[in-house]
Design brief:
Layout lengths: L1 E12 L6 E12 L3 E4 L7 H8 L7 E6 L2 E2 L5 H11 E4 L11 H11 L4 H14 L15 H13 L5 E5 L7 H18 L2 E5 L3 H4 L4 E6 L2 E4 L3
Parallel strand pairs: 3-8, 3-9, 6-7, 7-8
Antiparallel strand pairs: 1-2, 1-4, 4-5, 9-10
Helix pairs in contact: 3-4, 3-5, 5-6
Bound molecules: adenosine-5'-diphosphate (2 copies).
């Protein structure tokens, strides 16, 4: 019951003299309940790998499988459906909707997925409580600290029980204590939900707490130790 598989993934940008080869035959498997840290220098292709894993971008060659479903032959609509129902994405900048409260930000994706308002709000409160920010449920993002915003963003990403969680520098803008808290919250959610998680981070202390560390070199995903 492997959740995320990348096989022989190629991705380049541009062509001719200006070609940038980012991924060249990248392979990666992340199982349910497994948290994999992605540690690599800037420009190595971390965001590209996450975008491709989250079906936000297509590789030029290779296959991405989510829950055993190959995606290369799917059209854009089917990919969007699969992404909405299986993938939770956490960005470095929280991307919360500024005019909505924390609670609403977490409930909206559930309403879009067809849940009732009462069921969505119940789940949102549970997630916010688990992340220690339920007392902020009625506040808008601008009224929250950076760590609180990021915890709300994690609650939102987890709202629809994603099988695959992708996070791009989720603690990039946070102080060490808050980074710790946010990372642990993310880890607990992944455990509880049995999701497969790939987290790009520059924070070596956090990466060491992942189940496994990988890096990107010469367009390949390689095992890594810190
Ligand atoms: P990282 O997240 O590790 O910093 P990225 O995946 O963002 O790396 O980028 C990898 C390389 O691909 C970089 O050299 C970047 O400039 C290039 N790149 C990324 N996206 C594009 C794009 N849309 N067009 C052209 N080049 C791109
Ligand atoms: P941090 O130390 O994480 O940066 P802040 O100093 O920004 O936290 O905020 C401390 C507390 O004050 C947080 O709980 C936050 O929710 C609250 N807070 C910050 N700004 C506002 C605001 N404009 N309105 C209401 N509450 C706020």
């Amino acid at each position: 019951d492997t959740q995320l598989v990348l096989r022989g993934v190629h991705r380049h940008y541009g062509d001719g003299d200006t070609i940038v080869r980012v991924l060249e035959s990248a392979d990666l498997t992340v199982k349910g309940g497994e948290l994999v840290a992605l540690v690599a220098p800037s420009g190595a292709g971390k965001s590209t790998l996450l975008h491709i894993s989250g079906l936000l971008e297509r590789p030029q060659q290779g296959e991405v499988e989510i829950l055993g479903v190959p995606t290369s032959h799917l059209g854009d609509r089917a990919r969007t459906m699969l992404r909405r129902t299986t993938v939770g994405y956490v960005y470095q900048f929280h991307h919360l909707l500024p005019e909505f409260t924390a609670l609403e930000n977490v409930s909206i994706p559930q309403l879009i997925a067809g849940k009732s308002q009462a069921d969505a709000d119940k789940r949102s409160h549970e997630l916010l409580a688990m992340l220690g920010v339920d007392s902020r449920a009625a506040h808008r993002p601008a009224e929250l600290s950076g760590g609180e915003q990021q915890r709300v963003a994690i609650a939102r990403a987890a709202a629809n029980h994603p099988r695959v969680v992708l996070a791009d520098e989720p603690t990039g803008n946070l102080d060490p204590a808050t980074s710790d808290l946010v990372f642990e919250a993310l880890r607990q959610l992944i455990r509880d939900e049995g999701a497969a998680a790939l987290i790009a981070t520059h924070n070596h202390d956090l990466a060491r707490r992942a189940d496994r560390i990988v890096t990107l070199r010469d367009g390949l995903v390689l095992p890594h130790t810190l």
